[in-house]
Amino acid sequence: MWVIEELVPDGLWERIAPLLPPPKPRRYRYPGRRPVEDRAALAGIVFVLKTGINWNQLPTPLVGCSGVTCWRRLRDWTEAGVWPALHELLLDQLRAHGDLDLDRCAVDGSHVRALKGGPKSGPRRSIAGVRAPSTT
User: Where does the Insertion element IS402-like domain lie (predicted)?
Assistant: First the structure.
């Protein structure tokens, strides 16, 4: 399918394929449907992320699988740690080719883990004036 090859070029697929977890083994009895290929699911994920549509709006004939299947695969790959490994791999390759320019970069703190919830401040002070006397 030309859409899959356009959304996930061969070079990108060669980098991602080794990072993906192996598929779950199928049952011998009542095996169900064959699982969708990982490359088709990745193409669906890329399509949803590029267009901004909802998962259930993904046109199934376009990539060969439903949006729910792509969402599940994204969830499973996220739990398996595929995306940080891919990010590290691509950064290493950019460094090796000298294409990584750190003079022009943005730092995002959403990827940095705050150990033990980060620093704790003292107890909050009341900003109210003098406390009213009790009437009971």
Answer: 9-87
Range of the domain at 96: 1-10+37-100
Cβ contact 26:36 at 8 Å? no
Q: Determine, yes or no, domain membership for 50.
A: yes
Q: Kindly list the distances between the CA atom of residue 18 and the CA atoms of 25, 59, 86, 91, in Å, as whole numbers in the listed order.
A: 18, 27, 10, 16
Give the tens place of pLDDT for each residue, 37-75: 999 999 999 999 899 999 999 999 999 899 999 999 999
Phi, psi dihedrals of residue 4, rounded to the nearest 5°: -65, -45
pLDDT digits (tens, 9 = 90+) for 17-36: 999 999 888 888 988 888 89
Alpha-carbon distance 41 to 76, whole Å?
A: 12
* Position 75 in a domain: yes
Supply the pLDDT for residue 18.
93
Residue 24 lies in a domain: no
79 falls within a domain: yes
Domain count, the chain: 1
